[in-house]
Amino acid sequence: MKKATTTFFFLLLVLVGATQTVSAQRNVTPQVDPVLEADALHNLDVARQAFRLKKAYKGVLMRFEETFAAYPAFSHMEEFLYLAGMSSYYLSKNEGKQKVNLKIEREREKYAPEKLREDAIAYLSILLERNPDSSYKEEAEKVLKELRAGQQ
């Protein structure tokens, strides 16, 4: 039994070592999944329209959360983080056409103003961290300054 266990661990170490050697030789450039990319682009397009035309910020957040969970390497995540951050910010101020009903438990958990402000800070901070030269930088910094001042 002891010999079998030792042999098993030896084989495991050899396999792990072989896997690391093979993965080290691979091209480390992330590959774009065309199906996920197309789906994410569709979600972004719908979110853009919801944000700009309809001021449907809850819909923007739904599309963002779906995309971020399924495909965090999306090539346009910078814009999506901006839309999600600003949607959270506006909803926290009860702006937009989709109103939050805090009497409904599910809405209270997801759209409580404090949580929305925290989410806005998180999304906009990630945006600036990943994209320091973002075209959204000025507005993101302005909103972050306001939100952080409100936390004190």
Low-confidence stretches: 4-23
Our Rg estimate from Cα atoms comes to: 22 Å
CATH topology type: Serine Threonine Protein Phosphatase 5, Tetratricopeptide repeat
Shape: globular
Q: Kindly, what is the distance between the CA atoms of the first and last residues, rounded to a whole number of angstroms?
A: 62 Å
Which class best fits the helix and strand makeup?
mainly alpha
Just give the CATH class: Mainly Alpha
H/E topology pattern: HHHHHHH
Indicate the mean pLDDT: 86
Number of folding domains?
1
Strand portion:
under 5%
By DSSP, the count of extended strands is 0
CATH homologous superfamily heading: Tetratricopeptide repeat domain
What would you say about this model in short?
With 152 residues, the protein is mainly alpha-helical. It has helices at 2-25, 34-54, 57-70, 77-92, 105-111, 113-130, 137-151.
Write structural notes for this entry:
The structure is a single chain. By secondary structure, this protein is mainly alpha-helical. It has one domain (32-151): Tetratricopeptide repeat domain (Serine Threonine Protein Phosphatase 5, Tetratricopeptide repeat), CATH 1.25.40. 76% of the residues lie in helices and 0% in strands. It has 7 helices and no strands. It has helices spanning 2-25, 34-54, 57-70, 77-92, 105-111, 113-130, 137-151. Helix 2 runs antiparallel to helix 3 (57-70). The longest helix is centred in the N-terminal third of the chain and has 24 residues, at 2-25. The radius of gyration is 22 Å and the shape is globular. The model is unreliable at 4-23 (pLDDT under 50).
